[in-house]
Amino acid sequence: MNRKIEAHLLNPPPGSAAARARDFGIDLTLLIGRLRLTPEERLKDLQRAMIEIETMRAGLVRQKVSANDTSRAELTAIDTTSG
Amino acid sequence: MTRHQVEFVIVGGVAISAHGSSYLTYDLDVCHARTRENIKRLTAALAPFHPRPRDFSADLPFVWDEQMLRQGTSFTLSTDLGNIDLLGEVSGLGDYEQVRAQSIVMNLFGMQCRVLSLDALIIAKRAAGRTKDLLALPELEALREVAEENE
Lengths: 83, 151
Known about the structure:
Chain A is built from four helices and no strands. Chain A is mainly alpha-helical. The interface between A and B is medium-sized, with 31 and 25 residues.
């Protein structure tokens, strides 16, 4: 990526698509980082991000299951003692 | 698929990401040629990865073969490699030939792959018109702008 493009994204001219994207909420510094990569590197990054998200999601599900098991065990204990 | 000489174009989120967007996606969308020969190649290419429609429950029998692929045009599949959506056409663009005409070649993982161009991705997202498609437009338009400056 050349300096001109980097400057365009860092200081988008008013009325440009880059300015509209920035105003929409797109982090243009992230875009600069992505444009420095080759398409293949971008896809490897995407793959890494998706694996990380999936790992976090699996961790959350495990935590939830574990919390539910604990609650069930506590309810059973209360039920047994009150019965 | 490239090794099996399947005629396909990468469209959707992976194409968007390859162009530089930080868009995240869980599936690979490909538009494929609907010729008898290509369907045969596609069937052979994906068979080792146990493709199965994502909306089929695990206990339903399913056979992955050419006949099944010929019966429809679009399939949302889960495979050992992840989710793959096979499309016979793309909104706003048309069938494989029209999609191919608006694709560019990228070198990905040592192979020459056809990827939908930024202009065509913008047309397709506008035509699809769902909220998630429209949300991708500002970034795509900024990418197109810098790509034009780079030319």
